[in-house]
Amino acid sequence: MSSEPTQHLSAPAVAPDTSQRRLRVAQGVLLLFHVTGFLGLGFSKDPDFYLQFVPLNLLLTAVLLFAFQRDRGFAFIGFCITTMVVGFFVEVVGVQTGKLFGVYSYGATLGPKWLNTPLLIGLNWLMLTYMAGTLARYLPVGGFLRAVAAALLLVGMDICLEPIAVQYDFWTWAYDVIPLQNFKGWFAVSLILQVYFNRTDFEKRNPLVPFVYLLQLLFFFGLGWFIR
């Protein structure tokens, strides 16, 4: 596999006005869901009502995000499947052994589990890997440095996510302490996946990616600041 995409068969071109309208609609839907979730979790007397929609929000975000990935050929599908499988089983090993990220266990918020690991966690790894890798391609640096930058973007998202995850039963840590090992493990796994992302041959452009990454970053950072 080469490090840069070659010629691909992609979806027919969409008129600029139509494409922009689709993008604005997608951004509006995602903004509505995240603002509703933020207000519900931050101000409602019954946050459990809103927590039950977390898996739905994750699925909706993934559908809209990948709808704007024009090149959805075999290379992209292979990347998605591989990243989801790797992400899921990395978490399985992490939960079962405590050696990758520290000692933790998943709660009920992320939905149904297999091997004590939410089935949706692989999709979460895919989305974060894809978004961080796509954003890093704006940097005028070589492939490995882009992978490092993207891995740091993933760790930055995790730093903002951790207080929310603990507060709302995404997962819990032994002794209620988030270990430094967690962030080291996230960086190591993220770097491996980013090297794979860079070496997989598909078009890596998506106009919705910057909006989704920033929206999620602000969502988790804002909630984390609010519940301190």
Strand count, sense and barrel status of the largest sheet are: 2 strands, antiparallel
Number of helices: 8
The H/E string reads HHHHEEEHHEHH
Radius of gyration: 18 Å
Q: Percent of residues in beta strands?
A: under 5%
Low-confidence stretches: 1-7
Q: What's the arrangement of strands in the largest beta sheet?
A: 1-4
Shape: globular
Query: Which whole number gives the mean pLDDT?
Result: 92
Structural class: mainly alpha
- The number of distinct β-strands equals 4
Give the tally of structural domains: 1
Notes on the structure:
The chain is mainly α and 228 residues long. It has helices spanning 16-43, 47-51, 54-67, 74-97, 121-136, 143-167, 180-199, 209-226; strands spanning 104-106, 113-114, 117-118, 171-173. It has one domain. It is built from 8 helices and 4 strands, in the order ααααβββααβαα. Strands 1-4 form a two-stranded antiparallel sheet. Helix 1 (16-43) packs parallel to helix 8 (209-226), helix 4 crosses helix 5 (121-136) and helix 5 packs across helix 8 (209-226). The longest helix has 28 residues, at 16-43. The chain crosses the membrane at residues 25-43, 49-67, 74-94, 114-132, 144-166, 208-227. This is Carotenoid biosynthesis protein. InterPro entries: CruF-like. It holds the Pfam family Caroten_synth.
